[in-house]
Write a structure and sequence with these properties.
The longest helix has 24 residues. Strands 1-2 form a two-stranded antiparallel sheet. Helix 1 packs antiparallel against helix 4 and helix 1 runs parallel beside helix 6. The protein is mainly alpha-helical. Helix content is 63%, strand content 6%.
Amino acid sequence: MTSPPWFRRFAFAYGPAFAVLYAITLARDLALFTVYPSLGIVLPGTHHSADIVSPSIAFAVPAMYWYGWTATAALGALIVGVVGAFLPERWTRRFSLGWLWVVPVAAMAACVYHTMPWFQLAKILSP
């Protein structure tokens, strides 16, 4: 069973776009929403504990941004994928699919780079 050409164009546009947009949302802290799982609260946008109440509350009520970052990247990639699905096939033949793996690998390297301060903070806090 083969997939239709528009779906292939959508998939090959969505995948790299999601990887790049996730790295950007992580670097810029652009969460679509922030989840406070211990309180059962979901707030639109990126909210840090110090923005809402005292900075000391961040230890007792941690915020979870991953869902918001993923939703932001998925929404942006969906838009890029839909645009890619409607591009004429003669425009998309120019892109070599053999190099498609480079974009997610580069985005993963960017994500590792941007999360390094979290791991260094854990090293400092451990006894």
